[in-house]
Amino acid sequence: MSNKLIDLQHITKSYGGNMVLDDLNLYIRENEFLTLLGPSGCGKTTTLRIIGGFDRPDEGRIIFGGEDITRLAPNKRQLNTVFQKYALFTNMTIAENIAFGLKIKGKTKSYIDDKIKYALKLVNLEGYGNRMPDSLSGGQQQRIAIARAIVNEPKVLLLDEPLGALDLKLRQDMQYELIRLKNELGITFIYVTHDQEEALTMSDTIVVMNQGYIQQIGTPEDIYNEPENAFVADFIGDSNIIPATMLQDELVEILGIKFACVDKGFGTNTPVDVVIRPEDVVLLSPEQSSLQGVVTHLIFKGVHYEMEVEANGFEWLVHSTSMFPVGTKVGICVDPYNIQIMNKPASEDEEAVGINE
Questions:
Q1: pLDDT tens across 245-260, in order?
Q2: What is the pLDDT of residues 220-249, one digit of tens each?
Q3: Number of domains in the chain
Q4: Is 10 left (phi over 0), alpha (psi -120 to 50) or beta?
Q5: CA 47/CA 279 separation, integer angstroms
Q6: R_g (Cα) of the chain, nearest Å
Q7: What is the pTM of this model?
Q8: Does residue 268 share a domain with residue 205?
Q9: What residue numbers bound the domain in which 281 lies?
Q10: 81 within some domain
């Protein structure tokens, strides 16, 4: 496991009396691609800005490589930031844009020229040095913004929703480019997005945030398959979240029907929430399952059919490569391993707070 590089300790930040981050604790490892994921206003961009030195926390410390950098100016930190708005200098060529930071540092012309060639090759834009920014596509401009950041050889690259302005195809292409760059450069990426697909596609670690709190930290697989609470389950992909009763270990009652599961330790006759992903719901003929329903909606999505099935008062969302027309009576089956049990919160307002272990 990589060494801890950045350690955020008890970070609190408010603006005008509005609490944005409340006692946040998080660490980032060397060479990690860590994504801060959550809805607007959850605190992810504020966290990034505090790491970058653009905002200062009201309380808490930022430790970088063992050194307290809480009050260190942004230009003194071993990191660079790429914003959603690329902030390229429109009156400079691409080469001049890339060289800007190096010139400020007083690097020699030969050193700068070598770095420009290296950076353009790294982002697959060799030969573009003499062009102007307005002659490039959005995806190309984003690559230049990244090139300008990486020539300064930062230990950490901060990316604040850098793909948000791109169309779907360009965004997907740039996701793979960022993964390639991270692997080739061997530096730490801290990425901010509200796009679940981006987070699942690119990240080593995902930090799900809401209302200034960390809800869950884990690998993309953990976050998707083992959500720790209803917010995470609902925010990461589509889910069926159903009130249920844990009758005993490995047995749960869902909508009045007993289902085998693999979870233990929830007690007996305990109210819980159950998460079942739409792709994990199997539709059979009615006599093959003790839970029957009727297909109420059907949409063709290209790689699968999306259906809604009304069963025992609940509208199940189902993704399947098999098509069942509206009005079809079906049985609902779920593999025990695909039933995720979650404790109900003590109150509706309770937030889950996590620390990256």
A1: 999 999 999 999 999 9
A2: 999 998 898 889 998 998 899 999 999 999
A3: 2
A4: left
A5: 34
A6: 24
A7: 0.82
A8: no
A9: 240-343
A10: yes
